[in-house]
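User: I'm putting together notes for a lab meeting next week and I want to include a structural view of one of the chains we've been expressing. I don't have a solved structure, so I'd like a prediction I can at least talk through. The sequence is below, exactly as it appears in our construct file.
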Amino acid sequence: MTTLGTANADPGEMDTGRLSVGEARDGSEVGLPVAVINGARDGKTLYMQAVSDGDELNGLGVIQRFVPQLDPAELAGEILIVGIVNYYGFQVAEHRNPIDDTKLNRAYPGDTSGTASERIAAATFDAASSADLVLDLHQGSTSCMINETRVRCGSRHRLHRDCLELAKVFGCGHILDQKGPDGQLARAAPDEGIPTIDPELGGAVGWDEESIRKGVKGLFNVLHYYGFLDGDIERQPQTRASSFEQHGAPAGGLVSFTVDLGDEVQRGDTLFEVTDPFGTVKAEVTADSKGVFWRHRRLPQVATGEYVCSVGTDIDQF
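Assistant: Thanks for the context. Below is the predicted structure for the 318-residue chain, given as structure tokens.
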């Protein structure tokens, strides 16, 4: 039998339940929604989670579409899923955990006696540590971003190549290969010997259907490639960036972009203009380096110095 929280499944079965992570302000138990899919045949264990940032919902959309398509009788191995990690942030549609004002994906591996976020991180990290592969589903918050996967362990890590391979199999088309901040699951799990990636499935307010479809396809790519399901996949070359250039607004006003997400840009290419309310151009910003237009703010209004966009640089094919 495979167990996660109150979910228990014998071989060839699936079950859902709750993973206790503490109590809310009214004293009621807080349990994260979990699912266990126990294959009829022996195999690897995959752990996945979504919504560790409370306003990043595309990963939850992926899980909602993915799970009903699975038949445990056809599966080899086990899949452990935490559908909503940042319970408190999800309830109020906020990025951070409002109980302790923490970005939960900076709290790993967690602390069973710590803050609310550290306790959630500890409980989910314990589940992730039992797996052979880990997928931590994210999106670019509510800004606009390409679909990508992130390898966050750093190029010198012993599992760097394994994480890159997992990112290529997931197959969003773009990979950010850059060591991440301390406290990320995609930093902490490789230290335990588990290949881990952080798919960033676009960006949206609510759900983005194209990004969700790409995420579902990525999950099935992983299941086929690593032997959870029968059948082969053909891995496609991915565009890899190893760093970012971020651009802010040199003046206040309204931003108009001159390139689209995913476009290749050259040094000196115009990225955006800032105009006043009557269309007069106040500033023009150009790329400092060759790269890929990776991410930009959703709303057009900006103050001087406010973040506008990012270009992925140090580009190659993997």
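A couple of points you could mention at the meeting. The chain has a mean pLDDT of 97. The helical segments are 58-66, 87-91, 116-128, 160-170, 185-191, 209-225.

User: Perfect, that's what I needed.
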